[in-house]
Design goal:
Blueprint lengths: L10 H10 L8 H21 L5 H20 L4 H5 L5 H28 L5 H12 L5 H19 L10 H11 L5 H23 L6 H12 L1 H8 L3 H11 L2 H14 L5 H18 L6 H14 L6 H14 L1 H8 L8 H10 L6 H11 L6 E4 L4 E4 L7 H12 L6 H6 L1 H18 L9 H12 L3 H9 L12 H15 L4 H13 L5 H15 L3 H9 L2 H4 L8 E5 L2 E5 L1
């Protein structure tokens, strides 16, 4: 008979059962050996529960004993084969009782662990992993045991003032995959287990709130409808995904997501496919609650680098898209933190991050923030001065420039590119200037800003400007430091000659840059050149634009006279 409370079976009873079945040692030697082994393991587990051993060492030791017991169960013959060993009805009944009590003893060991500490629910997750490695007939019986333990833990959680169960996320991930199992009994037990797990999670979530009765009322309601809820979870990934996101704390939901992500590399295609479906649905509904986004992105990158032809590659890239919806800054900063130049895997991840229009403005804002940095420049914490270094970890601006070559041409970014045209234009010109300083040392890393600048013009309806500049061999020497200032002037002049449609926004932004705080000297020169050339598209238009802005009237004198020294030419505009 299955037990729900560890107190219902005593060690004396177990010893009595052992004495009763001793005479059957010859007929069912392997079964008696298993019974003896489980009894020995259980004694150690119970002894350690009452000891003062370090909690980590205690858990590891008890886990080893549980694994040993599980391996013994997995080696048992089927109940039908056990019954064949009996020569009489009484023997068959005794053998069946021995068989069932072996399973009950395993259940009792698990219950005794959960009784002392919710943290040890982690062992259930390990058992589910072992089950996935061994598809023996005992799976359904083990699932009944796991469900019984979770039900007991939920009952205990409703009566506790604190619930420390950090493993609920990974345990939920394992159970969610079994809710669609081909064996209906296993699917049913997994679904029931999910209900009890959500009950525990709700108690953990609500403890500490001003109205503690909320948790109890929810738990009672959940327990009274557990059969109905369990049916919803069977073969219904959408219901599981929604309930997981609503019930688990953000840290546990993150564990759930990461566990499913690791399952995408399972050699079992069915498990990988199930994990991908649940993962996608969960992030569709609740990606805003996921923490540690950068680690998830990094895990995807590493998996795809190990296998560029991964069967679940599209699903992994889909995770990047879903995370970018709600955490664009975290995703982009992680994607910019890999070595330059980007490999094919990273470029594909950039494309996935840029596949939707909604997060595009936030993505470009993040890239512009990165482009404020100068490649190779690091802050010296001792002198509070900036120093130059070519350390590989300090080339994020170069990575951001290369990433723009991917993002800018995307159709989903057309509107956002138009919105941020002035900021992108100047940021890339600054980066071209910075790159010219690296040309002798990093020849393979100097053209990203130039390529991105050219992509920006072509994506903004300024193909005519690109054609004109190409005829003047503008792109061939743009990054050369000797000609850079003249090339900046040539770009500004060509833009002015085309009377480009982004003129008002660009002029406004240039003036904003000119009156902001201190910048690098090379930045100031580029701003002056651009502001001077762009300003004289139409003086009347310029005046009407600034005079309509009262706060700029007092500073309009800045444009009255701007002497420039560009190459060997002297320019004076007034």
């Amino acid at each position: 008979k299955s037990t729900r409370n560890p107190k219902t079976v005593t060690n004396l009873q177990i010893l009595q059962y052992g004495m009763k079945w001793h005479h059957m040692a010859h007929e069912a030697r392997s079964l008696v050996d298993i019974y003896s082994g489980l009894l020995s393991n259980q004694s150690v587990i119970l002894a350690m529960n009452s000891s003062f051993v370090d909690p980590l060492r205690q858990f590891e030791s008890q886990l080893k004993k549980i694994e040993s017991s599980f391996r013994m169960l997995a080696s048992m013959p089927s109940l039908d084969k056990v019954k064949q060993l009996g020569s009489s009805n009484e023997d068959i009944e005794d053998l069946e009782n021995l068989y069932q009590n072996i399973l009950n003893m395993f259940e009792y060991s698990l219950l005794s662990l959960v009784t002392t500490d919710f943290y040890k629910l982690q062992i259930l997750k390990e058992i589910l992993v072992w089950m996935s490695e061994d598809s023996s007939y005992l799976q359904d019986r083990i699932m009944i045991i796991i469900n019984t333990v979770l039900k007991f833990a939920a009952w205990k959680a409703r009566r506790c003032t604190s619930v420390d169960a950090p493993c609920l996320g990974v345990l939920a991930a394992e159970l969610s995959l079994l809710c669609s199992h081909d064996d209906s009994l296993i699917a049913q037990q997994a679904s029931l287990g999910m209900c009890h797990l959500f009950d525990i999670a709700k108690c953990q979530h609500d403890i500490g709130k001003s109205n503690p009765t909320d948790s109890k009322s929810h738990s009672v309601l959940l327990s009274s409808n557990v059969e109905v809820l369990a049916k919803k979870f069977q073969q219904n990934k959408r219901e599981i995904a929604q309930t997981v996101g609503q019930t688990l704390l953000p840290s546990l939901l993150t564990d759930f997501v990461r566990s499913l992500l690791m399952k995408l590399s399972s050699p079992d295609d069915k498990i990988a496919s199930e994990a991908a479906s649940i993962l996608t649905l969960t992030l569709t509904f609740h990606s805003h609650k996921v923490t540690m986004v950068s680690k998830i992105v990094d895990a995807i990158y590493k998996q795809l680098c190990e296998n560029s032809f991964h069967n679940m590659k599209c699903d992994m890239l889909g995770v990047i898209t879903l995370l970018t919806r709600t955490s664009p800054k975290k995703v982009i900063f992680q994607l910019m933190d890999y070595p330059v130049p980007a490999d094919d895997t990273l470029i594909q991840m950039w494309q996935a991050a840029g596949s939707e229009a909604t997060p595009a403005p936030h993505v470009l804002k993040t890239i512009l923030l990165i482009l404020k940095g100068k490649p190779g420049e690091m802050e010296d914490s001792l002198t509070e001065r900036k120093r130059f270094s070519l350390d590989a970890t300090n080339v994020m601006p170069l990575a951001a420039s290369q990433a723009l070559c991917t993002f800018l041409p995307l159709g989903s970014y057309k509107k956002a590119v138009a919105q941020f045209f002035p900021q992108l234009l100047m940021a890339l010109m600054f980066q071209v200037s910075y790159s010219s300083e690296l040309s002798l040392m990093l020849t393979d890393r100097t053209l990203y800003a130039q390529d991105a600048l050219r992509a920006l013009l072509n994506c903004s309806g300024l193909q005519e400007v690109d054609i004109t500049l190409t005829k003047k061999s503008f792109w061939n020497h743009l990054s050369e430091e000797l000609y850079h200032r003249y090339r900046v002037y040539l770009l500004a002049k060509t833009l002015s000659g085309c009377n480009f449609p982004q003129f008002p926004e660009t002029l406004h932004y240039l003036y904003k840059l000119s009156v902001e705080g201190p910048r690098r000297s090379e930045d100031n020169l580029i701003i002056v050149i651009f502001l001077t050339e762009v300003s004289f598209i139409d003086c009347e238009q310029l005046c009407s634009h600034f005079l309509s802005l009262p706060k700029f009237k007092s500073k309009f004198q800045f444009l009255i006279c701007l002497p420039l020294n560009i190459g060997s030419h002297q320019y004076l505009r007034s």
